[in-house]
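RETRY 2/3 - previous attempt timed out on the joint model. Re-submitting the same 648-residue input unchanged.
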Amino acid sequence: MSDTGYLPKEKIKDFLKELAKDAVVYAPCLEGDIVLFRPFSEERTLCLDRPANTPPKSVIYPQSETLFAFQYKKAPEDHQKMSVELKADIGVPNMVIFGARPCDAKGFRIYDRVFIETNTPDPYYRKRRENTLIVTLSCAAPSPGCFCVAVGGGPAHKEGSDVMMTELEGGYVIEPVTEKGRAILGKHVIEDGKPYLKDAQHVQAKAHDEVRNPFAPDELPKISQSLFNFDGFWEQVVGKCVSCGACTYLCPTCYCFNITDEQGIGSGERVRSWDACMFFHFTLEASGHNPRPTKFQRFKNRVGHKFIYYPEKYEGVIACCGCGRCIRYCPVNVDISEIVNYLKDTHQELHWASSRKEGTQPTVGSTKDE
Amino acid sequence: MSNIKNPYLPELATVLRVIEETPNIKSYHVVFNDPELMKSFRFEPGQVGQLSVFGVGESTFVINSPPTRMEYLQFSVMKAGEVTAAIHNLYPGDQVGIRAPLGNWFPYEQMKGRNILFIGGGIGLAPLRTLILFMLDNRADYKDITIIYGSRTPPDLCYKDELKEWEERSDVNLILTVDNEYPGWNKRTGFVPTVLKEVAPAPDNTVAITCGPPIMIKFVLEGLAQLKFKDEDIITTLEKRMKCGIGICGRCNIGSKYVCKDGPVFSLAQLKEMPDEV
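RETRY 2/3 succeeded.
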């Protein structure tokens, strides 16, 4: 068999069954009218025709997970005294994420640098990441809000994936990306994909051209610091934000978390849960002091983290994969791509600077038409 | 996996002694339960630790005993929130967890041969204490040591026994102040930044290290600038709400810097490069 495989559409369930023999397979499934990654079984309805509403990040980085359990015990020699026992169990089954989109897979690479490629690797994330095979489906057409190409990705971008599938009319062309992914070609339902490779490449190129491009990634280093640090800018562009945090929970690259103790009687667990820098309490200190007390400062931190701070730490890599979920699902239509577009646009900077001088409030987005 | 240290798993430790410093600050002498770890444990002055009360949570405190005195680790805790309230309920023999050392430390090597000016307010003396004791244990390495320390009232001064000791030493210049007149108080009164101006230490070959409430730090920094201290000769140590302590959870960042990992010690020159989110 060549390096490329082909999976006829009618065999997709057989393929998933085969994968499920030695792994838990998470696939995008229809629940009501939304699509979520769920452990796949016969009763579920697979839905591959649009990106899932939530990214598969919770498979590798669960929304809530136990870091360790603790148990208080009476000391045998002195019943006034208690001892404590800690137990950390990082048992993870083999897992497959099937039908992730390239942006979702790229998101895991953003996490890898933070959770694994550090001198204090996170053993929980790392174990899940190592035990998970990521089978990605390239996007045949962009969804509303997508801007993956502008942040260095693309509808068939392979970073973070083990396997890349591309949909043709009768089936899926399967290209292994990593050694781990190559093993998939040995599954018996996979046919030789070489004859279909050209068609797949055509689909990929066509999709690439269709993705909207609010800015080019090489423009981003030109982000205007003076505008970024101007409070009035944030007050204008995120005045409507309701600090609900939905953007962070749906984001394949957001990873802020909280650690809390869940206490039972004499025992309990220390739990890690997703948190969000958009919340007032996130940075609130016991003294009452809050370094980011306003939603403007918090939104600035979120945009700053993705487009300035993370790239500063990791050789220019942008910590946004352009999936567009924060734009599609924001209840008040805040658009991060629009905000970044203002920040790197020198005309906007001049516009803001002049309005500052005159003491008037500019209207965001008005300059281009003037 | 087992060969990799789990950074979230605390080491178990026992409270040896509890010292009531002020009406709302207590110091804790803590030792690891594993005697081998107690022997091998190393840290640098200014590094912090996460102190756990299992069932309540974790909070970050500087290890304020110096690395030159390793019989126990000392943490000083002001009662302010849930975890600190739980810590205030601890007694000798109680079990806690420690994740340490975390973060960076005071650049004491670069301070050798220089005059040292400490400026502290309230509980802000805690991180300075580790460096003060470290320097007193290596006294010959440093030139004049001046300590300006203040609190609201005399009972609010931390480490009263040590203050007495430092006052009596001829190789330490200790200047104490409280905000207002107080019965029995015959030393200076006035806010720390005001006293700094009165004392007016010379900036020549001097490093200033300051810690205290944010409002005090703000005016101390202005005062030091007026006294012509250079930004790189002004060192402070920051406090933030922290969770992971290893630069991941996103809580303590100021721009691209994480106070838990890249800090807590920063020079004013470094702070000026960062967003104004202290």
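Residues 219-369 of chain A form one domain. Closing ticket.
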